[in-house]
Amino acid sequence: MIALEHAVYSVISPEGCASILWRTPDQAATAALAMKMTAADQAALGVIDLIVEGPPGGAQADPQATAARLKAVIVAQLEVLEARPLDELVEARYRRYRSLGPYA
Question: In this structure, how many other beta carbons lie within 10 angstroms of the beta carbon of residue 81?
Fold first, then answer.
């Protein structure tokens, strides 16, 4: 999994999470922190494998530079993956997704 440095990743919005946990979306900021949604947080949790640095001013400031950076990383990762046997890739993917979730 590859993410831009300022990306967030979650299955629910902070407002939705706060509405469930605290019965009010007013706690969205608290929920966002607890959810560890940032690319750095997700990398520390093992969900994100690589974080790609965006151009100065952010991805939206220079979409072409962002695309070029992403392309370089994706092509490099595809070359690594192509070198591995398919059964090994499938097993590694299975182990990876089975390991997600436990948090201490």
Answer: 11
